[in-house]
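Dear colleague,

As promised, here are the two records you asked about, laid out in our usual form so they can be pasted straight into your sheet.

NAME FIELD: protein one
SEQUENCE, THEN STRUCTURE:
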Amino acid sequence: MMIYPHTDCRTSDDDYAGRWWFLLVAILLGMVVLVGRASYLQVLDRQFLQPEGNARPIGIRPIAAHRGRVLDRNGELLAISSPVKSIWANPREFGPDDQQLRMLAGILGMTIGDIRGRVEREAGRTFTFLKRRISPEMADRILGLQIPGVYADREYQRYYPSGEVAAHVIGFTNIDDKGQEGIEYSYDHVLRGVEGGRRIIRDGRRRVIEDLENAREPVPGRDVRLSIDQRLQYLAYRELKKAVLKHRARSGSLVLLDAEHGDVLAMVNQPSFNPNSHKPIKSGVFRNRAITDLFEPGSTMKPFAVACGLELGLFRPDSVINTHPGSLRVGTNVVKDIHNYGALDVTRILQKSSNVGVTKIALSIPSSKFFAFYNNLGFGQPLETGFPGEATGRLPHHRGWNHFEQATLSFGYGLSASTLQMARAYLAFAKDGMIPAVSLLRRSENPKLYPVMSAKTAAAVRTMMERVVSREGTALQAAVPGYRVAGKTGTVKKNAGRGYSSGLHMAVFAGMAPASRPRLVMVVMIDEPSAGQYYGGVVAAPVFSSVMEGSLRLLNIAPDQPDSMPLLTAQGEGPL
């Protein structure tokens, strides 16, 4: 028989009780620490946790700012923003039934597959647009369907009352109301305003459950007032479009300036585009060719070469130059006239647009002075209008000239300028030798003037250019009944890459009225007319006449030749 030793059960019970009390005390101490810490953070030190806690359910919903208006010089609307709504969905909440989905697709003009596909592509996000910029009434109909996860936000849509007429000047905005071209782009920082925000409360699934208040009010954009006169803009647009279609031209540009202050009263291009349309358009159509595109001015440069000779005292208006036999060898090249005009005074050299005559004038001028005169007129210099894509033009430095290059510069080849640059240069003749800085904005004070020639020289050349707009000149069709007109034609052969083409031309006319005291300066350029006529006096001059006549009357400018009768018949003109 085996005998087992006796064991004490109390020792085991005491160990168990000790461990139990130790665990209980540890749990109580942990609870005390947690409660104390929570109390400290909730009561004594809330600076960090309270903002962080609020940041989770409270968010900011952006509020679009009203974009500023674009106005013409008389306060007429050229661009305005109208309130619209944009429909968006939260893919995490989106859950319409079949009937709601059909009704939603019908109102939005979308297919059910398009809607589902758009939401499914953004399944991991909380936001996707279904359709932007719809009418508030349509948005209210959609919200009335009470579809889970479908919301509407306020936005603005840009509207251009003048449509195509001022499209190249004003430009347009994109779907996010940001300027993309023209004034809308260059003055976007002025027009766009500052976006506001509204506080909202979201639940754990990021659903908006309550609007609180405006965190910051949106700041509307400022208005921009242009120098453009909408009445003259429409007139110029209509007449230029008519001429481009009639002559089957590639394109055309027209600039009308206020001769006193250099303000751009009208600036149009063809072909144009409708900024209110959302259809795809070739990007080149958006270009404001009057500012961005360059061309060789041709014979419209001859008055400047003549003015330089007069200003230096080398010639007078009645100085006689022999152009016989209608051609002149310059180095290895030959300069030709369309006819042998024989002996011509300086006035008739402009009137007949003699290449030989103006070449002889140019070659008698020191190249450095000839270059300085053209340079002071702004050729090869920026206009500083602030317009996007503004072209500077090209004027080669006189150190690289030979005699033939100096000759060609006198009749408008070898340099390039924009339509606006040409119009600005002609201001020198209109404003007695002074040139104001041009502007697309209406200015509150007079611009700075730059002297380029004496008032005597400017008046003399202006008088010569009046003879161009006569039966003996090349631009009879530029005449305006009741007004004296001064101007110059240009029929420019285009450079086709391997030399100048005999089949591609630009028809140009630059002029001013009333010639006794010019108030308006205009340049018309029509590129590649292909309907048979291509001379500047036949293609561009009639556009000048129509637009100038209408503009003078709209601005109530008194006639300076009231007894003149309309010139109904035109004589043939030469090619320059």
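NAME FIELD: protein two
SEQUENCE, THEN STRUCTURE:
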Amino acid sequence: MKSDIEIARSVEMQRIEQIASKIGIDNDTVDHYGKYMAKVPLSLIDEEKVAKSNLVLVTAITATKAGIGKTTVSVGLALGLNRIGKKAVVALREPSLGPCFGIKGGAAGGGYAQVVPMEKINLHFTGDFHAITSAHNMIAALLDNYLYQHEADGFGLKKVLWRRVLDVNDRALRDIVIGLGPRTNGVTRQTGFDITAASELMAIICLAKDMDDLQRRVENILLGFTYDDKPFTVKDLGVASAICVLLKAALNPNLVQTIEHTPAFIHGGPFANIAHGCNSVIATKTAMTFGDYVITEAGFSADLGAEKFYDIKCRKSGLQPKLTILVATVQGLKIQGGESYENVKTPNPQAVVAGFENMDKHIRNIRKFGQSVIVAINRFASDSDEELAAISNHCKELGVGFAVNEAFLKGGEGAEDLARLVVETIEQQPSEPLRFIYGDNEPTASKIEKIAKEIYGAATVTYSTSARRMFAQIKNLGYEHFPVCIAKTQYSFSTDPKQMGAADGFELHINDVIINSGAEMIVAVAGDILRMPGLPKKPKALEIGIVNGMIEGLD
């Protein structure tokens, strides 16, 4: 079979004005980024149409290094829905350069269920990530300049919270010292870098309603504390308007197309293991304005992405999914059942059955939010009929709809069964109004513990001394009503990436608590999770290059 990039190139794309016209967007309103990409204005959002659209969330069982394929299912389902006569649009996150050149690869789908132009989407796209990186680091530079220029006046910060970001996996930048050398190099202090996907500005772009809301949120970003324990914000720095200028274009969602010319909105890219893992509210609502069915995804597994989609994105935006799809693979279930990666392609129905405890726990969790749920199996060539039958029978026993997705090999045709199941389930068993895991006004520690115990299955939650101190500051600042975003490994319900299955009864330790007062959320860092990833021994970059003028090696 051709590689993803070869398949993407084999398709004759339609010009972006044709894609816009398909769903009723006037070409005069779009801002072209070449022939096949465009930005659309926020003014297109129609809340009445949003309320009538059918929003479908795609999530997954616990992630494995073999991959699960949520984006392939999301894109494939949109193709399948259009093939059976429905007006469907897909809304996705933007890929990060870190994983593209690191271990995971791109995030534009796969096989015959991709969004295109694949190379541009996976690389620099329309420059949103660069804008966010520049704006974030501009705040850092302006803050350090302020500290330098006012040091003689006796001004200083007891604690500086704002770090820098870069859209590259670079472990060497996690902890650094700046301002070394002569005094003219600035105030010497320890700081570090996170990856751009973890930037608070990324979360703000994904949650802001419009430009006014963007400016309000940027002003509220907490940069540090003075020596008399008063908060120091971007508003105090006086540069919020300048930062919004850098983010002006990035706030508008991006319109592209799938391999079968289905419209796709791609905007925002927070990771779900270290951030809230959802594309922008603006892009989702734009898609819902123009699509009767809108397919979106939440990063990594349901304990991370889906929980944050419901408890953060939906809580803040009022969005209500009509259905949640849990994506699984035969290989993923085997790994959760204890099979080794070396033997994962060898038929083993018993290992599949052993992996059901992981899938079942995710199903129970999704139902706690009042969501109807179906299971979609992303089929691989090595999957045996016996293994697929075991999953189908198990889902039938649970009363959960089940379909096999073959969009990777067959495009929209391979997702027609899934599409029909989605329509049937929404019409006959739509989700109830969302039930959140915690209330707005509960203490931050209570919110963390409810997620840890009710979603992850932790027996106890413990906190570092610094985390406990932050709880007091959160309360004093009046931020206890903020939702919680737990940063945790994607490879397990627990904080141990090697603990497979349901992983119940463990201790969840919170190492750090971060106030994102602009994004209006509290980030709790669990276990050894890092907000700046490192590169593997053999990064994907070793496979990427230009051959005869064409980019090769992206996947």
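A couple of things worth noting about protein two: The first strand starts at residue 31 and ends at 32. The two ends are 13 Å apart (CA to CA).

Best,
R.
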